[in-house]
Amino acid sequence: MAGGGAAAAASALSSPWRALLQRALDANAHLRHSTYFQLATVGAGGRPANRTVVFRSFQEHSDKIQINTDARSNKIAEIRNCPFGEICWYFTDSWEQFRISGSIDAIDGSSADPAKLQGESLVRELSEVKIAVLGTSARCSHYR
User: Fold this and answer.
1) Does this UniProt record's set of keywords contain Oxidoreductase (predicted)?
2) Domain that holds residue 32
């Protein structure tokens, strides 16, 4: 692709909220807590379950927000039982709040290529789950 490469292609395919969220992340990068947000899932008996998680990255060439968690955590069972959730992210310096809802995928280490993992890293990979929050059905409310 001329003039921008893969980054431009990913940007062209991005949801409008991603650029706003990235701008807020950049503007608040000097604050360590700016990478923390709340993830709500559906718990046992249909009750909401909310917790603070840490933003790791956007999955490459997508709008999916990635976090890491222990495979034994309750949120993994909740996501596998009901793969829908919502995040709420507040940036204290810029006074911006993002509420984004959509589907959630739990990507465990068993889906990794074992040939690329050795010894301790395989154990670490299998005990940690990457969670990709949101799919193409995301919606965003941006308050300022």
Assistant:
1) yes
2) 5-143
Q: Which are the contacts of 3, defined by CB distance < 8 A and separation ≥ 6?
A: none
Structure-token pair, residue 69: 């968690």
Closest CA to 98 of 39, 43, 49: 39
Strand partners, 53: 37
Buried b (16+ CB within 10 A) or exposed e, 57-72: ebbeebbbbbbebeee
Enter the pTM of the model.
0.70
Q: How far is CA 126 from CA 4, 83, 108, 111, 121, in A?
A: 36, 20, 7, 9, 8
Q: Could you report the per-residue pLDDT of 10-67, keeping only the tens digit for each?
A: 455 567 788 889 999 999 999 999 999 999 999 888 999 999 999 988 877 778 888 8
Tally of structural domains, the chain: 1
Which helix (H) or strand (E) segment holds residue 50: the answer is: strand 48-54
